[in-house]
Design brief:
The chain is an alpha/beta fold and 418 residues long. The protein has 16 helices and eight strands. The protein has three domains: 150 residues, no CATH class; 134 residues; 86 residues, Aldehyde Oxidoreductase, domain 3 (Alpha-Beta Complex). The protein has a five-stranded mixed beta sheet with strand order 1-8-4-6-2.
């Protein structure tokens, strides 16, 4: 889990398509120019033996074809994200845009285009001698091999890109990562919040948005430097607005925080227009529930996708933390953090499906089976909340079903007794 705000920002920036494309472009340009430096070290006789004069037409072919392939690939990626937004949920498109295979393919095509373009410019400008042309020719052969391998991988990847099943898998991966991080460190390294002590001063944001990241090391350092205790009442994913406290501050020496301290606290809390998957285990469940709700809408009418989503939710909620990553003592004792409850997670995951699929007996039965599976997990940590959710979902479904044989079948399959 990325606790530092700067590190979190760097990682999020590295996932942007333009960052990877820029690096590949710089590598392509540098590769083309390196041949100028290595050229004087190549004997002139070798240039004739290896046919280095053929590099000019080869680069021309690469330049013309790679520009077309890059344009086509980019339009394909846009079409895939649009398809995912319409068939699954718009909240999943960010995961498609962060797909490393798609980014690597687009970046490779753009980088090789610039490599060939710079190589052609340098050739016609007379910057390459005979040795330089040979180096460029050898590098061009390597570039062709990279293009072929990337094209083969990209063609295989296109067969699944943007499909509902692939989108569900991507959301599942993000949700399971967030769930595992949460179970291993449920309080972000802080101490349990408990009851906010009297005299603690609330701190509210100055803009509207969603809390995306909490910089725990920054808050701990501030608490130690100013002798403060900080009580976080909001977690990543919470909706924030001016006048709504995100945390409370208590000075051990008495008094309230001044403007400098308040600003330092706000700097540690990143607020953005949309929720993110990092530090927010509930968001993955919400996105999965949105996919299921869309599938259950009358316009789509795809209960099979909703059933697939429920299976995925069982996988996510059944994640077990790695024992060697569990923290026994808080790393940031000055920061007291409110926990995320299992009830919140189960409501995020199953209530939308129970509501939108209440009139479908197959969905209601699969919902009972999913909750039974969670309740029967070893250790029984989810048994109580799964049983309570099963009771609520069963009552909703029985209220909505009017055909008596459907009601009887649901009662037989129900996890809880009626």
């Amino acid at each position: 889990m990325l606790r530092s705000k700067r590190l979190w920002q760097v990682v999020r920036l590295s996932r942007r398509l333009w960052v990877r494309a820029t690096l590949y472009c710089l590598a392509g340009v540098a590769t083309a120019l390196v041949a100028i430096l290595l050229g004087p070290f190549i004997p002139e006789e070798m240039t004739k033996a290896f046919g280095a004069d053929a590099v000019d037409p080869i680069l021309s072919i690469i330049a013309s074809s790679m520009l077309a392939v890059t344009t086509f690939s980019l339009s394909t990626l846009v079409a895939a994200t649009s398809a995912a937004a319409s068939s699954a949920t718009p909240r999943a498109t960010s995961l498609l845009l962060e797909d490393t295979t798609a980014q690597r393919a687009l970046s490779t095509f753009l980088g090789t285009f610039l490599f060939s373009l710079v190589g052609l410019i340098a050739l016609h400008a007379g910057l390459y001698g005979g040795g330089g042309r040979l180096v460029l020719f050898i590098v061009t052969l390597g570039v062709i091999a990279v293009i072929v391998l990337t094209l083969l991988r990209w063609i295989d990847h296109l067969s699944t890109l943007g499909r509902v099943g692939e989108t569900i898998d991507r959301v599942k991966t993000a949700a399971m990562t967030g769930m595992r991080d949460h179970l291993e460190d449920p309080l972000l390294g802080g101490a349990p919040a408990g009851v906010t002590p009297p005299g603690a001063v609330p701190v509210s944001p100055i803009k509207v948005g969603y809390l995306q990241h909490i910089d725990m090391p920054h808050l701990q350092a501030l608490g130690e430097a100013r002798d403060l205790d900080l009580y976080l009442t909001a977690r990543a994913g919470a909706f924030c607005a001016p006048g709504t406290p995100m945390l409370f501050v208590r000075a051990r020496a008495g008094g309230g925080p001044d403007e400098t301290i308040t600003q330092a606290i706000l700097d540690a809390l990143t607020i953005g227009p949309r929720r993110t998957f990092e530090q927010d285990p509930r968001f993955g469940l919400i996105v999965l529930a949105e996919i299921a709700s869309r599938a259950l809408s009358p316009a789509v009418n795809d209960p099979g996708t909703a059933i697939d989503v429920m299976t995925t939710m069982v996988e996510v909620l059944a994640v077990e933390p790695r024992a060697d990553h569990l923290r026994a003592t808080p790393d940031f004792p000055r920061v007291h953090v409110s926990p995320i409850t299992l009830r919140d997670m189960f409501e995020d995951a199953f209530l939308p499906i129970a509501r939108d699929g209440a009139e479908n007996p197959d969905i209601a039965i699969r919902l009972q089976k999913s909750l039974r599976a969670l309740a029967n997990l070893p250790g029984g940590r989810l048994h109580t909340i799964a049983r309570e959710m099963a009771e609520a979902c069963l009552a909703r479904a029985l209220e909505s079903l009017s055909f008596e044989p459907d009601r009887a079948r649901l009662k037989r399959e129900a996890f809880v007794a009626v």
